[in-house]
Amino acid sequence: MALDGVGLAELVRRGEVAPRALSEAAIARIDSLNPTLNAVVERDYAAARASAASVDPQAPLAGVPFLAKDMNIEVAGLHLTASCRWLETLPAARADAPLAARWRAAGLSILGRTNTPEFAGDFVTEPTWRGPTQNPWDLSRSPGGSSGGAACAVASGMVPIAHGTDSGGSIRVPAAACGLVGLKPSRGWTPVGPHHDELAGGLDCEHVLSRTVRDSALMLELTSGPESISRIPLRSAAGMFQSAQGAAVPPLDIAVILPTPSGAQPNEEIGAAVEEAARFLARAGHRVHDAIFPETANCGEAAGIVWLTGVAEEIDYYRGRIGRPPERHELEALSWAAVEVGRRNNAVDYVRARRTLTRATRDMAERFKGVDVLILPTTADHAPLTGQIDGRTAAFDLDRWNAESYGFAAYTEIFNITGQPAISLPLAVSKSGLPIGIQFAAPLGEDARLIRLAAWLEREQPWHQRLAELRSRFT
After folding, report:
1. What is the crossing angle of helices 213-223 and 98-105, to 10°?
2. Angstrom distance (rounded) from CA 123 to CA 121
3. Angle 19-37/45-54 helices, nearest 10 degrees?
4. For 286-345, what is each residue's pLDDT tens digit?
5. Do residues 440 and 375 lie in contact, with contact meaning Cβ atoms separated by under 8 Å?
6. d(Cα 95, Cα 351) in Å, to the nearest integer?
7. How far apart are the C-alpha atoms of 473 and 361, rounded to whole Å?
8. Which residues are registered as beta bridge partners of 141?
């Protein structure tokens, strides 16, 4: 899969390759690489082949191989287990969720599901039931989480695009760890249904991981828009995202942030990479200046109540579907911690936590009024070693897990809280050869501005050769 999704679809549209051939190439690569990488946890090749045989060759992404994350979105014929052994017996979905229906309408060939930590609850992808996914850049390391299976599949060349979810950085963190483009859209652009009008207390967004900005832009174009049961009034993109990735970038006011919301600093290499990117933008004519987060952005405890209570409610929902509560060995330690948080906090506590997040949102808007774009690290450190962060075992401790997890991924959750769009771009590499993600964020609804800037940076500082060299390791 040397080409991105847009490039593959152009070949199909011109009749130079059949959609079935794209599926077969992706199937062969998945079967070859997955025993080593463990990115794909469910496969439905028969359905993908049938889809490829009947797809309209003029569809925007006709025949392009695609993988859905094992979280949130029901896909007809595939199981939705959240990498939780307790949900193993649930039947395959009978119908597509609204977002999955949009994937099919775009012409995508859905080959299966990717690995995720249990209930997408971790910044590493090491579920007890499914086993850990490996980072293709360094097999001793995690690809990040929670969309780690998706990131591994795209970076290694199994597919050009894969679904991700993002409630605290779960698209952007694995994008940074695996050298990819990871966009978390503004809250409300894409639907999350069918069983919920919002997920993770409104922190969640659904989108994709990709190798190119244009794939991410086109996917947002094709999946955004109104959906009847959503609490947030979704809008129609009306061509703005696709056109943005080819448009000129006007001079911008850009604020550089290096301290985390708690005041900590990134590691030396990541901090230097952000500063170099900021200097590059200044040389290009943008007004660049330093900034810090408002104090109220340090609201991890409140965000934890909202997010973990959402996991607890999800577990309660599935108790009704399974017909019994989980046994002790059927949930990991972090999931049981979420159940305890749900029990310990009453409705007033939950609403108080939501109010804290609203205060942070207000103060972020006030602090960065007049700022067009923020530039900051995606993660504070490089991808952790497999097993370094423990959300699974009897040795689990929630305070230690919080310190280790947010010591690694300290810069992403704030934009789930505010709803702002944020994108991670693979603009740098560490001395040891690991990718470094640099994050850009814009005001709510200004996704097109981010896409415009990201596409320009991709042209000016391309990362495609690094990814091509990575894929060549797995031939």
Report:
1. 120
2. 7
3. 160
4. 999 999 999 999 999 999 999 999 999 999 999 999 999 999 999 999 999 999 999 999
5. yes
6. 34
7. 43
8. 385
**Contact (Cβ atoms closer than 8 angstroms) between residue 162 and residue 66:** yes
41 touches 130 (CB < 8 A): yes
For residue 296, give the H/E element and its range.
Answer: none
Q: How many CA atoms lie within 13 A of 277 on its CB side?
A: 32
Q: Specify the residue for token string 């899969």.
A: 1
Residue at token pair 């200044």? 282
Report the length, in residues, of the chain: 475
First-to-last C-alpha distance (Å) of the chain = 11
What residues have CB less than 8 Å from 35, skipping those under 6 apart?
A: none
Q: Is residue 322 part of a domain?
A: no
Nearest to 192 by CA among 160, 147, 234: 234
Six-digit token pair at 342? 């749900």
Question: Mind listing the pLDDT tens digit for each residue in 143-165?
Answer: 999 999 999 999 999 999 999 99
Interatomic CA distance for residues 427 and 457, integer angstroms: 8
Cα distances (Å, whole numbers) of residue 424 to 10, 176, 457: 26, 6, 12
CATH at residue 404: 3.90.1300.10
In sequence order, the β-bridge partners of residue 436 are: 428
Residue 222 to residue 264: CA distance in whole angstroms? 38
Say if 103 falls within a structural domain.
yes
Nearest to 216 by CA among 38, 442, 433, 424: 424
Contact 2, 208 (CB under 8 A): no
**Contact indicator for 158, 30 with CB cutoff of 8 Å:** yes
Strands 253-257 and 287-291: parallel
Q: Is 287 inside a domain boundary?
A: no
With respect to residue 277, please indicate whether it lies within any of the assigned structural domains: no
Peptide bond into 143 cis (omega under 30): no
State whether residue 115 is helix, strand or coil.
coil
Spatial strand order of the sheet with 205-210 comes to 40-43, 109-114, 65-69, 161-166, 205-210, 181-184, 422-429, 435-441, 373-377, 253-257, 287-291
Range of the domain at 189: 5-246+377-472
Confidence of residue 188 (pLDDT cuts 50, 70, 90): confident
- Furthest-apart CA atoms within the chain: distance in Å: 62
What tokens appear for 294 in the block? 């408002």
**Number of Cβ within a 10 Å radius of residue 134:** 22
Catalytic residues: 69, 146, 170
- pLDDT of 228 strictly over 80: no
Q: What is the mean pLDDT of residues 220-235?
A: 77
The alpha-helical segments, DSSP class H, found in 179-331 are 213-223, 240-244, 268-283, 300-322
**Domains contained in the chain, number:** 1
DSSP 264: -
Q: What is the pTM of this model?
A: 0.97
- Residue that is written with structure tokens 């399974």 in the block: 322
- The whole-angstrom separation of Cα 305 and Cα 344 is 10
Helix (H) or strand (E) run with residue 404 in it: helix 398-408
